[in-house]
Amino acid sequence: MTETLQTSLQAYGDQFLNTFIPLLMALVCGGVVGLERERSRRPAGLRTHVLVCIGSALIMQVSLDMYYMVREAGGSTGDPGRIAAQVVSGIGFLGAGTIMREGANIRGLTTAASLWVVAGIGLAMGANMYVPGIVATLLVFLTLKTLSEVEHRWISKGGHHTFTIHVTDTPGRLGALATVCGRWNANIKSVGMKSGPIPGTIEISFVIRMGGRADTAGLIGDLMGTEGVISVTEEE
Fold it and tell me: Distance (Å, rounded) from C-alpha 4 to C-alpha 36?
């Protein structure tokens, strides 16, 4: 009886480790990618990426366990990839929720792609394929960190400018600033907003592309003359 109990406890212990380690690895890898998205203030951040990665790992483990159960029961039609394959297509609805349209511009595609690849990393971790999962995590993290800098410094350098505008927190400020940009034929690519350092103020960040001759000095002067604007700075 004692030996049977010890055997059962050992089996449960092994099952716990075989389950816990892949899910823990999925948490870490999903967290690495999610933390970068969180710091970039994307719609899907740390928690979303962690949950997607852990969920994918769990689904992969369930798929494999069900396959082995069918094999042990004498069945021959088990397919360990059938359930896991639904993750690849099913993650699309979550990624679609991060994509936003702002006028003629689309935002959130990179975050949607990161969610999709994190799901793949979770599947790899759930299948105990740690090396491919870790390598993919490192490559994704480096892609998000380094290539965004390359795009900012080199690819998007021509005609793209980033302005940080400190304004009073009153209705109509964002619309007034957008109107000024329109007068200067400046296409707004993205907008960010957060509370300003002084109570009753907000900080608005514009990434714009200047059309024609890029007279940023004139645009800054016009923005400064807008009601409610406290300061305008252009990032290098």
Answer: 48
Q: Dig out the tokens for 131 from the structure.
A: 């090396």
Instruction: Find where tokens 């034929």 sit.
Output: 185
Q: H-helix or E-strand containing 211?
A: none
* CATH 1.10.287.610 given to domain 160-234: no
Per-residue pLDDT of 133-179, as tens digits, reads 898 898 888 888 777 666 555 554 456 788 889 999 888 888 888 88
Coil/strand/helix, residue 77: coil
Q: CA–CA distance from 59 to each of 88, 93, 127, 134, 142 (Å)?
A: 11, 17, 10, 19, 27
The pLDDT tens digits for 191-236 are: 888 888 888 888 988 888 776 555 677 888 888 888 889 888 887 5
Q: Which residue, chain included where needed, has tokens 């892609």? A: 143
pTM: 0.54
Locate the DSSP E strands across 125-218: 160-168, 186-195, 201-210
Q: Sketch the domain layout of the chain as residue ranges.
A: 14-154, 160-234
DSSP state for residue 99 in the 8-state scheme: -
Q: Are 53 and 27 in contact (CB under 8 A)?
A: yes
